Amino acid sequence: MHCPFCRHSDSRVIDSRTSDDGLSIRRRRQCPECGGRFSTIETASLNVIKRSGVIEPFSREKVMSGVRKACQGRPVTEGDLAVLAQTVEEAVRQTGSSQVDTNEIGLAILGPLRELDQIAYLRFASVYQAFDTLEDFESAIAQLRADHHRLASDLEE
Q1: Torsion 68-101-25-42 (CA) sign
Q2: Keyword Hydrolase: yes or no (predicted)?
């Protein structure tokens, strides 16, 4: 790490702390040359393997963009999308792998999106899971209804 004051190529770590979200580490550093102190934030890299084989860094914005299309006209805010994208990133990072394929990201989106808005979930699932027939939609709707009834009966008990 280069010192931001004198550009010396080395620094000494004085203190390390995990961030509140647990996804990064804040390090307090000191330059042995000029004595200047500065902070750095380190995060583990997470790469996505696309269907074409191209590898690119994970992007919460891309998750939000893909889900935003499914949420058009629905009562879903940008804040809701940001929370969903963070939830998806945390779920993907918990796999412990530094590279995940787009399929895993899609699977990680389905659960939180289903909780957020069932219509947006159906829209996203229809594209992501390549629904071909009306029966595919009927099956997904039947599963949503069954889960809804199960949840309602659990609340009554």
Answers
A1: negative
A2: no
**Between helices 102-116 and 78-93, what is the axis angle to 10°?**
140
Residue 15 neighbours by CB under 8 Å, 6+ apart: 27, 28
Do the beta carbons of residue 25 and residue 18 sit within 8 Å? Answer: yes
- Which residues lie below 8 Å from residue 131, measured CB to CB, with a gap of 6+? 125, 137, 140
Residue 73, CA atoms < 13 Å, CB-side half-sphere: 4
Q: Which pLDDT tens digit goes with each residue over 43-69?
A: 888 999 998 999 999 999 999 999 999
pLDDT exceeds cutoff 80 at 93: yes
Short-list 83, 89, 85, CA closest to 48 = 89
Strands 47-49 vs 55-57: parallel, antiparallel or unpaired:
antiparallel
Note the residue count of the chain: 157
The whole-angstrom separation of Cα 149 and Cα 58 is 36
Taking the C-alpha atoms of residue 42 and residue 24, their distance in angstroms, rounded to an integer, is 5
Joined tokens for residue 108: 């990680």
